[in-house]
Model the fold of this input.
Amino acid sequence: MIDLRSDTVTLPGKAMLDAMHNAKVGDDVFAEDPTVKELEEKAAAMFGFEAGLFFPSGTMSNQVAIKAHTQPLDEIICDKMCHIYNYETGGWAFHSGVSVRLTNGHLGRMTPTDIEECILPDYDWYPNTRLVCIENSVNKGGGSIYTLDEMKAISAFCKSKNLPLHMDGARLFNALVAQNIKPIELKGLFDTISICISKGLGAPVGSVLLGSKDLIKRSRKIRKVMGGGMRQAGYLAAACVYALDNNIARLSEDHKHAQLLGTALAANPLVKNVLPIQTNLVIAEVKNAQLYADKLKEHGILAQPFSAVQIRFVTHLDVSNDDIQQVVSVINSMKS
Done:
């Protein structure tokens, strides 16, 4: 099967498995795992942060960040399309006791004006506006991305309002590679960033939360109470170190494959529309997403129904150019 359901379905190659096998490990709950420390320091240095913290998932990383920035009776601002709101099981309410105010951005991307409209006055009957969260790239927005200037404008506005700014950077490296932006160019723009290394970069497990030393110290305790204290986690961290060292630049190949796929879908008579393609996500609008996915599956292709009328395709390092050409051929043959 050619699996285009998600970039989380990738399997470690031999070189990554060798790195995991040869990792030096210790008990990370005692802060004694050298490979975990290496990963946290490497990721923090890439973006110009003081410290990092290793997590088993991006959801846990985001939720710990929210908890570290807020307290009950607070409210966070995010877009109606964002992952934190749609796909993290309402964790912001469960873990942090906060409410959410949603912007109505373009393909999941908000502006300073959108944020300003959501800031509440300090009245007894309102929650306290405390944190702004953006997602880059935006999953539900078809991989839409913020430009560096847009991120700078949001950062400057949040600073002017004394609002901490968190980025869910689950596919941040895709967004950066697509625009030829170096990670260090984001230095100072965000109070926290969560990067996921088990998506486009191909690690089997792992995200890293980046922030100040004080915030990461507080987040470490929150991670523990959520059950995220891992022991010899260096075997997993080694895969993430390998991914950061070897799998970032090649993301541009995934973006090219997504463009080829999108062109074929746009020309297919069964497809009504394809969202703009900027990274490795392709979302097509069809009459019946499940039926379209079932037809593809008959040809050995897996895609993910994303709603009743949307189907998502995600290119990744386990999908070759030959695979994409085969998928394009199948899509071209689908007429009814």
Residues 219 and 263 are 43 Å apart (CA to CA). The first strand starts at residue 2 and ends at 3.
